[in-house]
Every structure is written in structure tokens, then in C-alpha cells.
Write a structure and sequence with these properties.
mainly alpha; single chain; disordered N terminus; about 650 residues; globular
Length: about 650
């Protein structure tokens, strides 16, 4: 992370978690943070391996003409090597330059199976044409390769997705499918480990992860924070509003809600606490805003590009339809922090202590890599991976002109290392998604799941069956999304959950947005709320209370997906320009009602009955139908008027 400008570090509260505090709590809750400690020559060797991996991935995705299976197996072999060098079997093995002998064995065996596949690919194509051609050697290689991947998944991604994969594998065997047939499907074809998720990871995700790593080593994060400070820092409760805006801008390119929380939160959370916000609220604001960065167009943490690939749509099609849901999400958080500031009587930062807009305008060139990336992808003249590679070069060139934080050879190597390390968990999660998808396809489980969901939905006669199906899918997405990186999370959801919604009649774009949103909010939803835990470490607050507060702040992410699935007009599907204006206005008023209900304050404290009324009124207004807008506006307007005049009367009586 680049050094933070002086403007953002004035008068920061000393009672704030340090980097060591963050590392401690993340090692406790986040498997991805439990990494080995390398020093000296071993550290140089591990770094070199990751740098080589990143360079290989960029060159491979741009220039390689080798068979897809060859490229993917080399990719996974390197992932296994880096994975076992980075993640120990347990936190008790985290010691300086320590790795047990059996980890070397697992690393060599796991990487060896994929290299065996790669080196013998031409022979395999001719001889292994069906499951009946499986030999004991092929069977053993497949078993070892999958088991080594699953063990690495346990170490760096976590138990939830591994449990799902394990249960589905057991179910697959109960259907009578032989070991040879299953291994042939999962290991030797592009219908399992080498299926769409890992293909997307090796082709697109890795380049965007490297791009994000380069951006983090420029001054762009500090620029976003200073820009937000200049815009809203002086307003009531300004630091919290700075956190919302800066996290939205940083999060859209970081690809990691946890990483974004740590990066911007190290500046914004101390500022919020000093202003007067409670620690649990300060950590929650940063976590909720950082998580929302993943749904913020135009980048969406690379998800926009992946959605375009999965749905066979243009990037512009996806980005445009992401605008209103993202605006509603951040508007809800912004309103909540404003109402909290009013309730506590908080003030903003003195304008003399804030960055001047004139100085920030001079650094707008830092945004050039993002502009180039979006322009190239939107034009369709170049592939997404080529566009990302050009953006990486643009980041290096732009940083050379930055006197405050100029890039160096060391920073370039650090970025390549970070890109390689950041790819490990994503690739492993994608490989598990491939195994799950492969088993579902082989057993026909998808149709059975759909039938089950439809059956359960139809039994509840007083609720729209689609709502029940969406609710069940939401639960599935949150569970599967626990501790899984953003991009891998979406790949899993797109492969497993989205097809179910599409089959029951939800529009394709709405289904993909739905599973993406609820996969993302797993980072702030207890019990495994990694972004909230990172925020609590900095704020020195209770992790669970911080997670609950973050969930309340991010209420828009729990409501909006239902709205656009039931009425896709919110995604600008089958609508008119006039209807779009109506939808935007009514939805913004609606999210105000929901946010006020969650906070419990407008002009004064709101009673529980009225909180329920304005919550329902807000939800009605977020439904794009005109009749619901009218009903919601009447009730919401009535409560606001009642609050306003009663608070005025109370003030007069007090005077």
C-alpha cells in the first residue's frame, strides 16, 4: 500500500488497531490470512516463483497457442506449488521458514499429476477417449490430483465449499456412477476441474488480480480518500461519508472486500472514531462500503467482465444494468451514516484540515489506467485480457509521473508477487466450483434441485413461489460465499445457483446479479463476516457486533436483488426512458425509508410501530410498479411529516 498523504492522517485517534491487530484477528477467522512466514533466501525463492507465475499467466493468456488443457494443467500445477508454499496445514505450523516434509510430498504429488496430464496430453487425446479407457495409472493420477486440490482448498478457502463438494461427491457415488467414469469426467475432460470456472480464472481473473495489485502500488487509494475528504469531509459526520465514497471507488478495482477494508479503513475508521462514531459502527461502515465496492460499476472487482463472459453479453450491457442497484446500495449506507451523525450530533472535519480540490485535480492522471481499461473493453476492439494487460502497462507508465509515489522495480516485483499470491485462493475455489458443477451435470442433480425448489415453493400458498425460491437460493449463496474471494465466489454461484433461478423464470441478467449480490454479502453476514472482522480489528470493536451493524447498513443488498428479480425494470429491462426516471426516483426515496427504519432516527427517535411502517413503505416504493409507489409515498410521507412537525413542537416546548 502506498504511503498515506498528510491530509488524511491528521489527528487520527491513537486508540485504533494496528496492522498486527488486524493480522491477529484475520488469522483467527480467515484461512486465507494464515500464511507461512518466509525470511531470507527462502522468501526470495518463494517471491521469485510467484513473480514467474504472474508473468507466465500474462504471456500465456495473450500469446499461447497451446491446447487449452495444456495451459490449464500448467496453471494448476503452479497454483498447487504456490499454495502449499503459502498455506500451512494449520495455524500451529506458522513458524519462520518452516514447512513439514509431508507438505513437500503433497506439493510434488499434486503438481506432478497436472504436469503428467500436460506432458502426456497428446497421448491422452488419442487413448483416453472415454471412461472405459481408464487405466489404473490414470485413476491414481486423477485421485491424487483432486485430493491435493481439496486439501489446499481446506487450507486457503475454508470448510463450507469443501463440505458442499464432498457431499455432492458422495451423492454422485450413491447414484451408481463408477470411480473411473467420475474421474474421467472431473479430471480428464473440461467438464470438471478444467471446466468454465478455472478457464475464466486462468484467462481473465488472474490478469485483473495482477492489475489490481499494480493499482494498489500507485497513489490511487490515497487519491480516492483525499477526493472523498474534499467532497464530503466537512459535512455532518463527514469521516463516515468519506469512508462510503472512498471505499466505493477503491473497492470497484481491488477485487477484495477484506483488502479494501484494511486499505481504506486504516485511514477512515480512526477518523470516524475521533468524530464520535462508536467503534462497532465505524468498523461496520467501512466493511459495508468496502464490500459494496465489488458491485460498483464500471469495474465491479472484475465481476462485470466475468458476467459478460458467462452470459455471452457485452461488457457495456452488464455495467449499465449494475448502476441503479449499486447507487441504491451506497445511498442506503450514506443515509444511514448521515442519520447516525444527526442522532449523535456529530460535526464534520474543519475545512482547513482537508485536501484542496485544486491539488487533487492535478493528480487525475492516476485514473488513466481505469479509463483505458473501460474504453478498450467497451469498444470491443480488443479482448478483456489484452485490455487488462494494456491497463497494467498504463499503470506503470502513469506512476512514473507521480513524484509523491513513483513506481520502482521493487514495487513492480511486489505487484507481480501479490498478483500470484492473490490468485491462489481464487483458482482453488474455481477448481472446486468445477468439481461441483461436474458432479451436478453427471448426476442430473440440477433438475432434481430445481424440482425440489419448485416443490417447496408451491407448498407455501400465501407467498409468491418465486420469492421462496429466491430465499432458498439466497441462503445457499451466503453459505457458499463464506470466506471465498469475490471473483471465485461469482464463478461458483454462476455455475451452481444461477441456472436454478433462470429455469424457474427469472431473467438471466437478474439471476446472475442476484447470486453475485448474495455471494458478496457473505463477507459482512455473521458468523463468517471477514470484511466486518477486518474492520473490527482496526476499530478495536466486537467482531460480531460489527458484523451485525454492517448487515443493517447493507440492507439494500438484501432487498434490491429481490426487487429486480421480481420486476426486472430496475435493471432497465423491457422498460421506457420515462419509466426509468420513475424507477430511479421512487427507488431512491424507498431506500431512504428502509435506511431510516434500520437507524431509528429522522428528526427525532422513531417508535417501533412507525419504523415498521416506513420500512414497508420504502419496500413498496422500490417495487417499480406505479401503484406500489403511490401507496409507499403516502405512508412514508406521512411518517416524515409527523416526525418533522412533532420535533418542531417539542423544540418549541423545550424553548
Amino acid at each position: 500500500m502506498s504511503s498515506t498523504p498528510k491530509e488524511t492522517t491528521k489527528n487520527i485517534d491513537a486508540d485504533t488497531g494496528s496492522a498486527e491487530d488486524v493480522e491477529k484477528i484475520m488469522r483467527k477467522y480467515d484461512r486465507e490470512s494464515n500464511t507461512r512466514i518466509w525470511e531470507g533466501k527462502p522468501a526470495v525463492l518463494v517471491k521469485l516463483i510467484m513473480v514467474i507465475f504472474s508473468v507466465y499467466c500474462i504471456c500465456s493468456t495473450l500469446f499461447s497457442v497451446a491446447a487449452l488443457e495444456k495451459r490449464l494443467t500448467v496453471f494448476l500445477a503452479l497454483i498447487i506449488v504456490m499454495g502449499y508454499l503459502t498455506y500451512p496445514a494449520s495455524k500451529h505450523h506458522v513458524r519462520v521458514n518452516y514447512i513439514p516434509w509431508y507438505d513437500y510430498v503433497l506439493m510434488i504429488l499434486g503438481a506432478g499429476t497436472f504436469l503428467y496430464y500436460c506432458l502426456n496430453y497428446d497421448i491422452l487425446v488419442k487413448t483416453l477417449t472415454s471412461a472405459s479407457k481408464m487405466t489404473p495409472m490414470f485413476t491414481v493420477v486423477g485421485i491424487i490430483g483432486i485430493l491435493c486440490l481439496m486439501e489446499l482448498c481446506r487450507r486457503c478457502v475454508g470448510i463450507p465449499i469443501l463440505c458442499v463438494a464432498g457431499v455432492i461427491l458422495i451423492y454422485t457415488f450413491t447414484t451408481g456412477i463408477s470411480v473411473e467414469r467420475l474421474l474421467y469426467t472431473l479430471f480428464y475432460t473440461t467438464g470438471g476441474v478444467l471446466s468454465t470456472p478455472i478457464q475464466v480464472c486462468a484467462k481473465y481473473i488472474v490478469v485483473f488480480i495482477i492489475f489490481g495489485a499494480f493499482l494498489e502500488r500507485t497513489g490511487i487509494a490515497a487519491f480516492f480518500i483525499n477526493l472523498a475528504n474534499s467532497l464530503v469531509g466537512s459535512f455532518s459526520g463527514g469521516p463516515a461519508k468519506v469512508a462510503v465514497i472512498s471505499s466505493a471507488m477503491c473497492g470497484m478495482v481491488s477485487g477484495s472486500s477484506v483488502g479494501n477494508t484494511v486499505t481504506t479503513g486504516s485511514v477512515t475508521i480512526p477518523m470516524m472514531k475521533k468524530t464520535g462514531y462508536k467503534p462497532e459502527f465505524a468498523g461496520a461502515v467501512e466493511a459495508a462500503a468496502s464490500t459494496g465496492g465489488q458491485i460498483m460499476p464500471p469495474i465491479m472487482g472484475a465481476a462485470a467482465f466475468l458476467m459478460a463472459e458467462y452470459m455471452n453479453e457485452t461488457y457495456a450491457f452488464v455495467a449499465v444494468r449494475a448502476i441503479l442497484p449499486a447507487v441504491l446500495y451506497f445511498t442506503g449506507i450514506f443515509i444511514a451514516v448521515h442519520l447516525e451523525a444527526k442522532k449523535l450530533g456529530l460535526k464534520g472535519i474543519n475545512r482547513a484540515d482537508l485536501p484542496r480540490m485544486r491539488s487533487l485535480v492535478k493528480r487525475l492522471y492516476l485514473l488513466l489506467p481505469l479509463v483505458i481499461l473501460v474504453a478498450l473493453v467497451t469498444s470491443g476492439l480488443r479482448s478483456m485480457q489484452f485490455s487488462a494487460s494494456v491497463a497494467i502497462l498504463a499503470t506503470i507508465v502513469v506512476s512514473l509521473f507521480d513524484k509523491e509515489d513513483r513506481i520502482s522495480i521493487k514495487k513492480i516485483l511486489d505487484a507481480l508477487e501479490a498478483g500470484g499470491k492473490g490468485t491462489i485462493t481464487v483458482a482453488v475455489a474455481c477448481s472446486m466450483a468445477g468439481i461441483i458443477a461436474g458432479c451436478i451435470t453427471a448426476t442430473g442433480l440440477a433438475s432434481k434441485l430445481i424440482s425440489t425448489v419448485v416443490s417447496i415453493s408451491s407448498q407455501v400458498t400465501f407467498i409468491n413461489p418465486t420469492v421462496i425460491a429466491l430465499f432458498l437460493t439466497m441462503i445457499c449463496c451466503i453459505i457458499l460465499g463464506m470466506g471465498v474471494p469475490t471473483t471465485a465466489n461469482y464463478c461458483i454461484m454462476a455455475s451452481t445457483c444461477a441456472p436454478i433461478l433462470i429455469t424457474i423464470g427469472v431473467p438471466k441478467i437478474a439471476a446472475h446479479f442476484f447470486v453475485f449480490y448474495f455471494g458478496i454479502v457473505a463477507d459482512i453476514t455473521p458468523p463468517v463476516a471477514l470484511a466486518a472482522y477486518a474492520g473490527s480489528a482496526i476499530a478495536k470493536s466486537n467482531p460480531m457486533k460489527t458484523g451485525i451493524n454492517a448487515t443493517k447498513l447493507a440492507i439494500g443488498a438484501f432487498v434490491v436483488p429481490y426487487i429486480f428479480c421480481l420486476n426486472p425494470a430496475m435493471l432497465f429491462i423491457d422498460t421506457t426512458p420515462l419509466a426509468v426516471v420513475q424507477i430511479v426516483i421512487s427507488s431512491l426515496i424507498g431506500i431512504f425509508g428502509v435506511a431510516a427504519s434500520m437507524n431509528g432516527f429522522l428528526f427525532k427517535k422513531i417508535s417501533w410501530p412507525l419504523r415498521i411502517v416506513i420500512c414497508i413503505a420504502g419496500l413498496l416504493m422500490m417495487d417499480p410498479r406505479p401503484i406500489t409507489d403511490i401507496i409507499g409515498l403516502v405512508f412514508l410521507g406521512g411518517v416524515v411529516a409527523w416526525q418533522y412537525f412533532s420535533s418542531k413542537n417539542a423544540a418549541v416546548q423545550t424553548a
